[in-house]
Amino acid sequence: MDRLQAMQVFTRVVETNSFSRAADTLNLPRPTVSTVIQSLEAHLGVRLLQRTTRRLNLTPDGAAYYERCVRILSDIEETEAAFSHATTGPRGKLRVDMPGALGRMIVMPRIHEFHARFPQVDVMIGIGDRNVDLVQDGIDLAIRIGTLSDSSLVARRLGLYQRLTVASPMYLERHGRPETIDDLHDHVAVNYFFSRTGRLMDFAFWIDGHRVELKMRSALAVNDAEAHIAAVLNGIGIAQSGHFMSYGHVEAGRLVELFPEHRHRPVPISAVYPHNRHLSPTVRVFVDWMAEIFEQSPLINYGLSDVPTAPARDAAGDTVAQEDV
């Protein structure tokens, strides 16, 4: 039995809580994963996992063994990276997840630059607004938008996300321009809803130092950022859309920003990853590269200089709640 592989298989089964998902993320047949775990338990002479029809639970021995495996595997990865990275650069597979609009507009137009710089890193990028579980789905790294909430993942801030309240000249010509926030009750919105919960995203404003939320009558609701901005451009209603998607349209006159003095404070755009990936050279170079392109992107930074951010906890060691998108 290859004890190092057995440790890798065992930790992945624990982290994904599934033999099948562990097999998929390790590119192994499922029977192989089951055989490895059985052989490992026989070798150690203890039961590591309690299996039920619905989930896997660690035994006390399994929990202790898992903690030691994580430390050992991290030490091995760090040791190998210290030597291989210096001579050949980072290598291996990297699974990344990111929101659709950010991925298509910011990352994908420049991904060829990362490949040219690190040709031995095989990147698998999932693009969409599904709220994935990084550990259970075997994701090494994700881009998330929102305020920081807990310490289950490591996070690094990449930029800022701010919503603008916008409408098309066509809509304003037909329905008039709202002069106050209260006037919005007489208008219709293109709303955004969250796929996981079906909840509509409330309009949010910053008034006299406080967050003020408003529910607007809906003309249309979508769960895709690009469909959202397309509907606004076509004059269906008023919306609050991400700065990086709407600011260029405002500059070109295709959209009009409403209540710029009451923009809600922006929230972080963060790269997040599990604690056991913080020493991975592939994760490190991809995060550094994303920080570089986000800093250079006018779509992220233009018009947001010296803007105070919404109150949030320190990014170090925190993950994000994906509700502010």
UniProtKB/TrEMBL annotation:
Judging by the UniProt lineage, the source's domain of life is Bacteria
Per the UniProt record, the source organism is Pararobbsia silviterrae
> Its family?
Belongs to the LysR transcriptional regulatory family.
Query: Which residue ranges does the record assign to the HTH lysR-type domain?
Result: 1-59
Q: Could you tell me which Gene3D superfamilies the record lists for this protein?
A: 3.40.190.290, Winged helix-like DNA-binding domain superfamily/Winged helix DNA-binding domain
User: Mind telling me which InterPro entries this protein's record contains?
Assistant: LysR-type_TF_proteobact-type, LysR_HTH_N, LysR_subst-bd, WH-like_DNA-bd_sf, WH_DNA-bd_sf
Family annotation (PANTHER family) = HTH-TYPE TRANSCRIPTIONAL REGULATOR, LYSR FAMILY TRANSCRIPTIONAL REGULATOR
MF terms from GO for this chain are: DNA-binding transcription factor activity; sequence-specific DNA binding
Q: What is this protein called?
A: LysR family transcriptional regulator
- The keyword Glycoprotein appears for this protein: no
Which keywords does this Swiss-Prot/TrEMBL entry list? DNA-binding, Transcription, Transcription regulation
**Gene Ontology biological process terms from the UniProt entry:** DNA-templated transcription
Pfam annotation, one family: LysR_substrate
